């Protein structure tokens, strides 16, 4: 990205400047000259001629705006042109210009002059006088005149409502492009404000209120200039995600301690287990489990252990395609630790642990750690979706689809088990949706790897004309390129794919042995086929991080389809699901604890430090 540079006459001076007005400009060749002249004239009406400066923060324009700004700066020493070769975003352009500004009162407004300029003196003086630390015009206060068309007004009210709700702001209008900050306020908050585009000034106002700065909001007359439209990337992916990000940072993260995190994980696990009592009397499951063959349960655990070295080998191959050579034994330990974290912490927070471990112990960059994990997840989903699909074809050939249709329509009941049709359809819908997305995603990535055209940027650009496209597309492109490194290489795709198949085959064999341990005695072909389907659907259903380790979702899916497709009682099916999950989670925890001891990694410390590492990497990237 091009560095911003100032273009102004050498004789220009900033001595005596009290007020700096910044005009963020992107392709404003039609209006910038008039805007600058009106701004200078308005400032001269209430300030000494040498007490202000006007900075054109030109943000990577590709029209004549730079030439016009150069000419204006050459004509008047109070006008400065601050140029950037590449887009910084509106917030980025404002921040760089404020940093270089000479005044103690920092002002900006939109170059379309939608806000009546008679309010400029009021805006400036509220901060310049020292009465307030920040000030903003408002189009939603009484006594204002604002021609607000419905297509602008409805989204604006919704946005401001969300900011007030989630971020506890007292202001009515956070978007009005007519704001001022004291130098002290700007310097105190600039490092905390992360957004560099449309959300930048909203975040400044919210953080100013949280920090105890005095913020003034006053009504302004406002008239829209030009047309507008709802922009999917800017308004939803951009500003919506920024509201959630700021809410998390200001409200949630300060309350997350080690004790709270562990307690929340345990409570969610207990809650998920308690939900199962809605479907079956626990005593019935306990009774079935009490008859389990200990030797076969132990055999199931041993079989499941075999899948872990395979996971390490697969992860080694994935990292190898991304340019990193590591031993499978170390990577197996890292996977053990991260999966243990997923059993304890909600929302798959354990995934961040793996990226932390490979960075802290092997210096693999944090983004690469997450990208390799994403590749692994895609292959997992692709494999189990493929296994479920193969069994589904077999069921279609043998008439088994009728049994699936029946369970989707009526649910499953028997003894004290009662799973409603609605719950069955929910689980089936989640599993089907995840599987279809995984298959289509891998196909699209593999095909795009051979295309010269930038498919990602073209696709995202269909939904937005805003510069947030660059940010969103850049993130997606990095993710896709890492996937393409594996999916686009036939040999690598084959190796990782075959290893994934072996891993999930071992997972299914473990479930089969658990069923045998509970005394299930049915045709081996039916047992294996149904187990492949039930385990696959169960794992697809638990992809959504609704509970630690997917406890609850997996059990429901396994129980429903095992009871529906095989001559197994619902109680026995649920007991098998619980025991199967318990065996696998038990192996995971034991391996995770052993790996933490051998690699000297604390699970809670890893979660906390992984967040710190991400913050430092982001700050480093922004400074480059």
UniProtKB/TrEMBL annotation:
**One GO CC annotation:** plasma membrane
Entry-linked PANTHER family: DOLICHYL-PHOSPHATE BETA-D-MANNOSYLTRANSFERASE (PTHR10859:SF105), GLYCOSYL TRANSFERASE (PTHR10859)
Question: Per its UniProt record, what InterPro entries does this chain match?
Answer: DPG_synthase (IPR035518), Glyco_trans_2-like (IPR001173), L-PG_synthase/AglD (IPR022791), Nucleotide-diphossugar_trans (IPR029044)
Q: Which Pfam families match?
A: Glycos_transf_2, LPG_synthase_TM
User: Which domain of life does the UniProt lineage start with?
Assistant: Archaea
Report the subcellular localization. Cell membrane
Q: Which family does it belong to?
A: Belongs to the glycosyltransferase 2 family.
Q: Which residues form the Glycosyltransferase 2-like domain?
A: 20-188
Q: Which organism is it from?
A: Haloferax chudinovii
The protein's name is Flippase domain-containing glycosyltransferase AglD
> In what way does this protein cross or attach to the membrane?
Multi-pass membrane protein
Q: Name one GO molecular function term.
A: glycosyltransferase activity
Point out the gene that encodes the protein.
Answer: aglD
Keywords from UniProt, A to Z, are:
Cell membrane, Glycosyltransferase, Membrane, Transferase, Transmembrane, Transmembrane helix
Gene3D superfamilies per the record?
A: Spore Coat Polysaccharide Biosynthesis Protein SpsA, Chain A (3.90.550.10)
Database matches in NCBIfam families: flippase-like domain
Membrane-crossing residue ranges in chain numbering:
260-280, 292-310, 378-397, 427-447, 498-519, 556-579, 585-607
